[in-house]
Amino acid sequence: MARLALTGINVAIDTVAQDASTTIGAIGGYAVVVATALPQLGVTLTSSYLAAMVGDIAASHLCSMPGGPPIIDQHVLPGQQPGQTHAQTCLLDHVAELRDVLDAFHASAATVTVTIADSTLEHADRAWHAQDEPPT
Predict the structure, then answer these.
(1) Which residues contact residue 90 at a Cβ distance below 8 angstroms, ignoring those fewer than 6 apart?
(2) pTM confidence score
(3) Along the 136 residues of the chain, how does pLDDT read in single tens digits?
(4) Domain layout of the chain by residue ranges
């Protein structure tokens, strides 16, 4: 699996920018893995997505944070998302889950903002091309 580092995902808590690192990878034509680490907070979120490229997408999220056990959440994303590729749908879901996780981590006592640049969504699609390229 080739993993691509994604830039353009910005996380802020009460307007204070947080260091965050996000990668995306594809495994064949059916699986996508997105992972984000926030080292200052000790929080990591790993999301995996499985779909046959047509129809619903199964999403699983594993979150690790200080002071508690890992949390697993699963849900199904409905079929085709207008104007979005499979990778873009997965990345948008991951970013929404990240925002929800951070909001819960701060018990809604802080304003959590997670933004994603349009160019980052476009870059997410390259995960499929990268898996076919030989390692350098």
Answers:
(1) 24, 32, 34, 47, 49, 57, 59, 124
(2) 0.89
(3) 678 899 999 999 999 999 999 999 988 778 899 999 999 999 999 999 998 767 899 999 999 999 889 999 999 998 777 667 888 889 999 999 999 999 988 887 899 999 999 999 888 887 655 655 444 4
(4) 2-127
